[in-house]
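[step 3/7] inverse_fold.run input=structure_tokens len=344
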């Protein structure tokens, strides 16, 4: 395994834990300030890192060659279908809890099909169709454009994403943008998809792969840049919260782009000895990302106002331990039943 892959696998595992922190808010019972800092400043780098690392590794392994992309797309799509089946019972239960069946089954099914195709069939696993779409877009665009050009093409799309998410409150004050996003959200529920969200980070990963020999700045310079842009991200998030502009999301910001770039380059510079643990971390990172909604959904549906959910730290630890256990069981079973490997 290449050294740079080891460091990517390690940080992906850390990012998977950060995503669980984002979804469980472990400090919310103790400090609003600390909870805000962890959920909107610390954890914001996690999801972009997954997309950047995917774009980077795909370019490293194949330079987006057709044969590889077809195999990769098939694998991601199969994972998405399998995880959609896993979570579908929870979807049905939520329909019943929300009394959605009152309006009839056909509108519910049509809404689910729309979500499955465009947005993600369940919370968190939106990552899979978004990754699939953005990877295919980079593959298609790379037939005519360089990775730098693809990244530049994605910038105005990302600005649109910012206007419809973290800066949505500002957009609503501008009549033209208000009309645009009213029309958009009249059909879609989220702007986090492969075109608006995934494309810029996947193309950035591919660009870093292509230019990595030219952009290695040294750890001290990278670390300084990370500190500066993480500080600017904190200021941006505080301003967005104060102005109440981020009503449609907090994880698409201006500063996350340069921060993600320098953070990823810093990770590439790290040197780690291969002791076998990083390959396992790669498996666990994706499973932690995808199956965390199982314990979270169970807690939301049946464990409200219990000792598990009453305290935020207990809640985080419970979700993390359960997610690790589920991931361990899946990996262990996949060693005996090969088809289970399609899950991750």
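[step 3/7] decode complete -> sequence:
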């Amino acid at each position: 395994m290449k050294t740079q892959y080891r460091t990517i696998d390690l940080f992906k595992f850390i990012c998977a834990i950060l995503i669980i922190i984002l979804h469980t808010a472990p400090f919310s019972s103790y400090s609003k300030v600390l909870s805000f800092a962890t959920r909107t400043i610390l954890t914001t780098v996690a999801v972009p890192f997954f997309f950047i690392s995917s774009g980077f590794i795909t370019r490293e392994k194949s330079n987006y060659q057709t044969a590889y992309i077809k195999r990769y797309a098939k694998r991601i799509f199969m994972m998405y279908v399998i995880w959609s089946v896993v979570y579908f019972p929870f979807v049905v239960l939520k329909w019943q809890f929300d009394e959605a069946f009152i309006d009839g089954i056909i509108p519910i099914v049509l809404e689910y099909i729309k979500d499955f195709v465009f947005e993600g069939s369940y919370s968190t696993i939106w990552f899979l169709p978004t990754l699939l779409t953005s990877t295919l877009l980079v593959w298609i665009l790379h037939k005519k454009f360089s990775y730098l050009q693809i990244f530049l093409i994605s910038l105005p799309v990302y600005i649109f994403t910012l206007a419809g998410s973290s800066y949505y409150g500002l957009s609503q004050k501008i009549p033209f943008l208000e009309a645009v996003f009213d029309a958009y959200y009249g059909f879609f529920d989220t702007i986090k998809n492969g075109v608006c969200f995934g494309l810029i980070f996947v193309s950035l990963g591919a660009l870093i792969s292509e230019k990595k020999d030219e952009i290695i700045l040294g750890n001290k310079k990278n670390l300084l840049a990370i500190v500066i842009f993480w500080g600017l991200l904190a200021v941006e998030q505080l301003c967005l919260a104060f102005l109440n502009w981020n009503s449609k999301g907090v994880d698409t910001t201006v500063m996350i782009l340069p921060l993600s770039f320098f953070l990823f380059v810093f990770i590439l510079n790290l040197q780690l000895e291969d002791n076998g643990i990083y390959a396992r971390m790669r498996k666990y990172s994706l499973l932690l990302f995808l199956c965390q909604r199982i314990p979270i959904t169970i807690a939301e549906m049946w464990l409200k106002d219990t000792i598990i959910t009453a305290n935020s730290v207990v809640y985080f630890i419970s979700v993390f331990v359960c997610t690790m256990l589920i991931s361990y069981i899946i990996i262990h079973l996949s060693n005996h039943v090969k088809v289970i490997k399609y899950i991750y």
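[step 4/7] annotate
The chain has a mean pLDDT of 93.
Residues 172 and 178 are 5 Å apart (CA to CA).
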